[in-house]
Amino acid sequence: MKRMKSKDYWKKRSEVVAGKQFKKTDNYILSLHLEYMEALSSIQKDIEVFYSRFSQNNEISLQEARRLLNSNELQEFKMDLKEFTRKAKDNKNLQWEKELNNVSYKVRVTRLQALQTQIRNSIEDLYSKQQDNTTSLLSGIYEDTYYRNIFEVHKGLGIGINFAKLDTNTINKVITEPWHGDNYSSKIWNNKDKLIMELQTNLTQAFIRGDSIDKTSKIIAERMEVGRNRARTLVNTESANIVSKSTFNSYIGSGVVKEYEILATLDLHTSKICRSLDGKIFKVSEKEIGVNAPPFHPNCRTTIVPCFADTFDIERIARDSEGEVYYIYGNISYKQWYEKYVA
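== Phage head morphogenesis protein ==
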């Protein structure tokens, strides 16, 4: 019999693996913030141009906003539409591309419709990027978490068991699974539609009130901040979900982890439910995300730790394994292990 490594060892190794993934999430959220600021800047410039052209005493009534574009203004707007359509095509946003084509055939377009189209284009572009970047983030998190956890378990035990390798289809299947009703992609598009509706409604209300450009810009900035916060929560929570799924799949793939412990130390704002579950042990076969496995709430960063008996028989593990077995020495790095057993 061989003595198992301490609980603190497994906790620290699990924290390192999960922490790497949450760091990726934090870095992406920072870049997401910049993307929202760029979109807001573009929208506010469109609003400034709109007010400089059509306002009287720095105010625009709804009646003025609903006036038709003259021939020169319509021609200029249709030049913008060509650029918007090109971007939509590049982003593979087929629905928006189709709607832009429909608008381009119109011969009667109001000032308000033109402005709303410009604003919506900024939002469509923003969320198309968010869709692609979130997909890339979640795919990378799933793969890295899976292999790093298998490495840590096998290294900690000193013995490795043949495990399933990941391919693109497997990863895509996992990250696109519906969770809480929808998958991450549907949630992103739902958030996009919600923000577009809020911006259009607030813009119309600003013209009804006859708001100044400063007040209108402030209202739009506030709604964009709401949209950014929704995006941050979505990315945080979906990332935590993928870390959890990948960790469980790696435990199963390791061939030796049968139980896990809840670890809430990575969650800076530990919730009541996470505190109540911290340290509790469950069977891997009975895990249920949101009930006895993280994430337990939006922005949750509670994670899990593999559980083992105090001692284990390394030869028995080798005998009981259905796949190929190899022995691992303690000084091997993750890079060396990956190149030898994964790449």
